[in-house]
Amino acid sequence: MLNIADLRNTTYDPATVMPRAKLEVADASAVVEPIIDQVRHGGATAVLELTERFDGLRPQTLRVPTSAMDRALEELESDVRVALEESIARARAVHDAQLPPDTVVPLADGARVENHWLPIQRVGLYVPGGRAVYPSSVIMNVVPAQAAGVPSIAVTSPPQTDFDGLPHPVILAACQLLGVEEVYATGGAQAIAMFGLGADDDAGNTVCAPVDLITGPGNVYVAAAKQAFLGQVGIDAVAGPSEILVLADQTAHPAWVAADLISQSEHDPLAASVLVTTSMDLAEAVVAEIEAQVPGAVLEDQIREALTGQQSGALVVETLDEAIEVTNAIATEHLELQTADNDAVLEKITHAGAVFLGAFAPVPLGDYSAGSNHVLPTSGTARFSSGLNTVSFLRLQQRIHYDKTGLEPLSKGIQALATSEGLHAHADAIRHRFDEM
Ligand SMILES: NC(=O)c1ccc[n+]([C@@H]2O[C@H](COP(=O)([O-])OP(=O)(O)OC[C@H]3O[C@@H](n4cnc5c(N)ncnc54)[C@H](O)[C@@H]3O)[C@@H](O)[C@H]2O)c1
Ligand SMILES: N[C@H](CO)Cc1c[nH]c[nH+]1
Ligand SMILES: [Zn+2]
Predict the structure, then answer these.
(1) How confident is the model at residue 436 (pLDDT cuts 50, 70, 90)?
(2) What does pTM read for this prediction?
(3) Which of 134, 206, 291, 371 could form a disulfide with 94 if both were Cys (CB 3.0 to 4.6 A apart)?
(4) Tell me, what's the ipTM?
(5) What is the distance in A from the centroid of ligand 3 to the CA of 333?
(6) Which domains are present in the chain?
(7) Is the backbone of residue 110 left (phi > 0), alpha (psi -120 to 50) or beta?
């Protein structure tokens, strides 16, 4: 089911050896443009109509009523509650530690600059709910926003047929545990449009106020809609399907590697599961394990489609350095290191959204409870971006404090620079303060 490519004694390009699945974002953009337009003109009623069209059911109200939120928490199974609370506590510890300190930089007498971090004022957090529902993504979006001090947090997730057109009750309960009261029952591009534009009811009352930043993972329609708002509203990332790469040598445990590769493939038929190894014996054992573990899996069809796609496979290379080079070139969302000396390999890893070290740090640990964030850069964007974190919800404001003593020694130099740029009014603004014009 997982194809093995033997790259030993061959010439290959690490950058193209493992192509990603083709994501039809352009096609999805054509679908989402009219959806966004409809929300722009029709507000909350349009969001409800579109929800009915794409999710097959119309929520009674777009905003989830408080009574439903309370009920979800009351009815939450105790083992799930305990696990959510543990996951929240660990995520809080990690995300609170990401809060950068303000700094004051004295530069000369009467001259200092301060670096001051400000929270984004209002954020809209998307929690997927199509093929699967993701209460864990509530935690991964809300906790960093709260760590950053965001005062206004709204969450949205698609309505579920089995739950009266409300988002999944565990999603609502997770919101309750986190103290988030503003929750909407809509998904897809219409949810992103609601956040980006705001939505009023037919009488002109605000149902959802527009947000300053939209974060959270989602399918290709969610990604295309986020892309459409780029530049108008902050966007964390335009996410692609989930990805795992396991870099392993002969010391790895084949059944566990196989299970980890299968785990991420159940997210999406386009999910990427890749093994990069120096051991043909391991590659063959992992493939045999996959053949044994997949039949009968709950999401077997989806798993098979993902594992047999061009984006998934096992690559056998000659040396550990080659394995590291291929891994860095792929720049995967999740990287597992399962080698005899993971710390030495880690030193050479430059590109990966998050790195999981050793046999007892599998990706599902990070998906739920490690404390790290599971909203991570996909599609090779780990080359230039980070996973969702506390700083994603902050803006750096530089505060410039100069008095006359501070400005005077720079006066002539600024005038010279401004004149060299042909910007004489800039020079004059300085000159006015020290010379008669
Ligand atoms: N990176 C992460 O942290 C992370 C976490 C969880 C999930 N994910 C990924 O998020 C994705 C979730 O996708 P999903 O589909 O399950 O849920 P989703 O909530 O992203 O999308 C469901 C919505 O898509 C809309 N939709 C469906 N078909 C449509 C169509 N033909 N035209 C217009 N709109 C349509 C519907 O409105 C529906 O509510 C998966 O790819 C998963 O791998 C990523
Ligand atoms: N692996 C996903 C991110 O790619 C996150 C997730 C949530 N629940 C389970 N998994
Ligand atoms: Zn996962």
Answers:
(1) low
(2) 0.96
(3) 371
(4) 0.98
(5) 11
(6) 25-235 (3.40.50.1980), 240-386 (3.40.50.1980), 403-434 (no CATH)
(7) left
